[in-house]
Every structure is written in C-alpha cells, then in structure tokens.
Amino acid sequence: AVARLHAGASADTVLAELDWPATPLLRVPAEAFLRELALSERRAAAAQAASAKALSRVQAKSVSMLADLRSMQERHGEEVFGDLLRLDHATSQLGLMTDRLALLMGGRSSRAWNKPIVMESVLRGAVGRIAAYQRVRLHCASNAAIAGFAAEGVMHLLAELMDNAANFSPPIDEVHVYVEERSAGIVVTIEDSGLKMADAAMRRAEEAVSGRVTDLASLQGTRLGLAVVGRLAEKYRIDVNFRPSSRGGTGVVVLLPPQLLAQQREGVQPAAVAPLSPAPTAPSPEPAAPEETHDRAELPS
Fold first, then answer.
1. Rounded Cα gap, residues 248 and 253, in angstroms
2. 169-205 confidence digits (pLDDT tens)
C-alpha cells in the first residue's frame, strides 16, 4: 500500500485494493492512517514539483548569463578577458549544481544539442563545469562522437565523476581521464590519487550510480552527484563501475554503449573550438541556450 501511494495512486484506489478487517475497531484507524499517509505523499510531490519549477527558472538564468559573458568576451580586450573567463567558469559551476538538483527532482537539463559532439569536446565541456578543472588531465585519441540527444547527459555524467574524483583526492594531485574505443562502445576511465575506498564505501558508491536510489530523503550531501550519475546512467544505459586505481586511489570505468555514438552517415564533424585568450587558465564551458536545443557544436578548447 505504501509503495502504491508513493507511485502516485490515490487513497481511495489503494483502499479499494486491500482486504480490510470487518471489525471497525481495526478498520477505521487503519483507513485514517492510510489517508494521512496519502496526504503526506501529495504534499511531498507538490513540494518537489514546485522546487523543480523554480530550479528551471534558475537554470534558464544561468544559461542566459553564460551567453552574455561570452558576448562580452568577444567585445572586450585582453585587459578584462581573464576576469570574464573566471566569471564564465563560476557560472558554469552554478549551472552544473542547478542541473544536478533539477535531475534529482525529476526535471531536465538546461541544455541540449542536436548535432553530434566529438568525444574530446565532450570531455572538455565536462571539465569546464567543475571547480578543480586545472587538475584534470585528458588523454583522448578517439575520433568518435556522441549523438546529439545524449551529448548533454554524457557531459553531465562525466563532470559529476570528475568532480567527485577531484574532491576526494589531495588538492595538489591530478585526476587523469582516459578514453578507449572498444567493440562494446567507448570506455572512459577516471582515476585519482586519493585514499582507496573501503569495501563498504565502494558498495555504497556502486549502489548510488546504479540508478536504484530514488528516495531523495535517503541521499547524503556527498552522494548527490553520484545519485545524478545513477539517474543519467539508467536513462542512457551507461555502465558505471568503481575499482581501485593504479595511481593509488579510486578508478571509475564508464562504458558508453554503441547506441549513444553518432554513425558515420550522420556526417560527424569535429566541434568548433571557441577562441581563447593568451591566458588559458580557465577553459570556457560549452555554449548553451535556455530551454531550447542547439544547432551548433561549439565547445571549449
């Protein structure tokens, strides 16, 4: 009965499905409890829907701010370009956080692409969304491209895993990302040099990225990013597994299945590289438009 209420069934529907005792002394309080539980579920669902709606407005605003910042980067000289890049990167981090919460509440990402994005640009777009981007080293020789419908989801999933690796490793150590082409798809490996995860912690991480965790009340603050990974992995049929890293910390192996890859007949082309200033300390995240799909494949260098 509780599961049916949580799934959205009304109290009357659930009551009709159950066999209640004939004794009023037992039936009346049981029915009252069930109706109160149904009311609590409706309130929780309404609060979640309202939060998702408010977050969608914040998402649209952050995307609009990114567009304004990029326009300013094109208009102004080098004396302010570095400051604009830092603001651009900070806004991209805000976009990642709002998208994270929106996805957990049943919403959608603020960005979408309708053209294939080459794998290297997907990685750079993911790196550009995390605070410790300067510590991430990319090793990608693949010419494969992710289909437009999945590019944003893959980018967000990898950004969450890179952010997790950077946060749980020493601030002076690098996070390495490797890409390999296999018959089963594209394998992306993310390795850090932090402390090895205990067996219990690794099991919790595996459960978080499995997509089976749907109750927001059960999520810990440090596991929100992994829960988002689980939602995206389930949506796009992506396999995510943890293992000890050869660098002494923890490794994450991500298998992107063939159905997410762009076919050669689609005319895949490398993404255009956004121009950067002589100060390459802050990569510019990928361009985006609020509440609409892109017709460009421009991504940060």
1. 15
2. 888 899 999 999 999 999 999 999 877 788 888 888 8
* Residue 159 in this model has a pLDDT that exceeds 90: yes
Q: Tell me the one-letter amino acid at 298.
A: E
DSSP code of residue 114: S
DSSP class of residue 19?
-
Task: Output the pTM of the full model.
Answer: 0.67
Q: What is the CATH number of the domain that holds 156?
A: 3.30.565.10
Using an 8 Å Cβ cutoff, are 62 and 94 in contact?
A: yes
CA distances from 277 to 23, 82, 88, 99, 227 (A): 79, 8, 13, 28, 36
Q: Is residue 104 part of a domain?
A: no
Q: Is residue 282 part of a domain?
A: no
pLDDT score for 215:
64
Q: Are residues 160 and 261 in the same domain?
A: yes
Rounded Cα–Cα distance for residues 278 and 301 (Å): 12
Report which residue type is found at 153.
Answer: G
